[in-house]
Each structure stands twice: as structure tokens, then as C-alpha cells.
Design goal:
Elements: E1 7-13, H1 22-33, E2 39-45, H2 59-70, E3 73-79, H3 87-95, E4 104-111, H4 117-129, E5 133-134, E6 139-142, H5 144-147, H6 153-179
Parallel strand pairs: 1-2, 1-3, 3-4, 4-5, 4-6
């Protein structure tokens, strides 16, 4: 991309459990992102976000809202628990409203047999309600704790497709948001 201002990408770490596998997957993703000069990348770890479940307004919520509002795109790294995504991720999505709108989101999931893809399919419904654009391709790591391989060709190919789509949508939607406010 020839854009002079890089796209602001927030990588959101969805799992907050003790002993979580998320840092391994996030490190892999950050390695992939080093190849994309279109993005200025920040990591927003929900384990550090201190978002109240009652969705009340706090200084931590104000900071979280500011970061979401400043971003052009998102990648959620999520585990799958009981065929769904983590509660902390749902709280994060519900904490802000307008700042998500007209922005693209991609998914990197990990878990058991499904590789987290059931969680991704649920998330696609939620982000559509938030007026976000979910990019088609996602990354899933099956049996991640046992078989994670950062050199996995299928995962790296899927990441390249997802990140390419994410950059295209982020660039397109940022231009459009600058021209006309989103009507939602």
C-alpha cells in the first residue's frame, strides 16, 4: 500500500485465563504482521484491560474506548471454550458501541478439534450487529497446545489472506469514514 499514514491495527487478546495459550498465538501473529508495513500494530490484552462486567464507565473503560475509536482495524486472537468465545471478549465488545462501527475485523482462533472456528462463527454474528466488517478468511489452530507449529503452511497462508483482506477493508473504510460519517 502506498498510504503515507499506516493503518492502526489493534490485536485484541480474548482469553484472560491463567495459564492461557494466547501469548504463543499472539507472538506468532505479531511475527506475521512484521511483513505488513501497512499496519501500525498495538496489542490490547483483555487480561490487562480491567473492563467491568456491569458495563459501567470507569477510567479503564474510557481508555479502552479511546483505543477502539483510534483503530482502523482489529484482529481478535481467541480461544474456544465450550463451543464459544471467552466471556471477557463479549464484555469488551459490549463495552463500547459506536467506536467499532465501519471497521474491519479478522480472527485468529485456537482450540481443540475445531481449532476455535466455532467461536469465530459466533463472533461473526456479534460483530455484524456492531456494524463491523468481518473479513472472510480466518486462521484456526487445531489442538494448539499439542500441535502448534509456527511454520504451519496452511496457517501462514490463511494469515496472509486474512491480513491482505483486512488491509484492503481498513484502507477502504478509513477513506470512506474520512469522507462521510457512518450512518449507523
Amino acid at each position: 500500500m502506498s498510504r503515507t499514514v499506516p493503518l492502526r491495527l489493534e490485536v485484541i487478546v480474548g482469553s484472560v485465563r491463567a495459564g492461557r495459550f494466547a501469548p504463543v498465538v499472539v507472538d506468532w501473529l505479531l511475527g506475521r504482521l512484521r511483513e505488513y508495513d501497512a499496519f501500525e500494530v498495538s496489542v490490547l490484552d483483555l487480561a490487562d484491560a480491567d473492563l467491568p462486567q456491569d458495563l459501567s464507565r470507569t477510567p479503564a473503560v474510557e481508555e479502552f474506548t479511546r483505543r477502539i475509536g483510534a483503530a482502523d482495524a482489529f484482529v481478535v486472537v481467541t480461544s474456544e471454550y465450550n463451543h464459544g468465545y471467552p466471556a471477557a471478549l463479549k464484555t469488551a465488545l459490549d463495552t463500547v458501541k459506536h467506536q467499532w462501527r465501519a471497521k474491519p475485523i479478522g480472527f485468529v482462533a485456537y482450540g481443540g478439534v475445531s481449532g476455535g472456528l466455532r467461536a469465530v462463527e459466533q463472533l461473526r454474528q456479534v460483530v455484524a450487529e456492531l456494524h463491523m466488517v468481518s473479513v472472510r478468511d480466518a486462521v484456526g489452530f487445531h489442538q494448539a497446545r499439542k500441535h502448534f507449529d509456527p511454520a504451519d503452511g496452511a496457517a501462514n497462508d490463511a494469515a496472509d489472506r486474512m491480513l491482505g483482506q483486512l488491509a484492503w477493508w481498513a484502507d477502504t473504510l478509513r477513506d470512506r469514514r474520512e469522507q462521510t460519517p457512518y450512518p449507523g
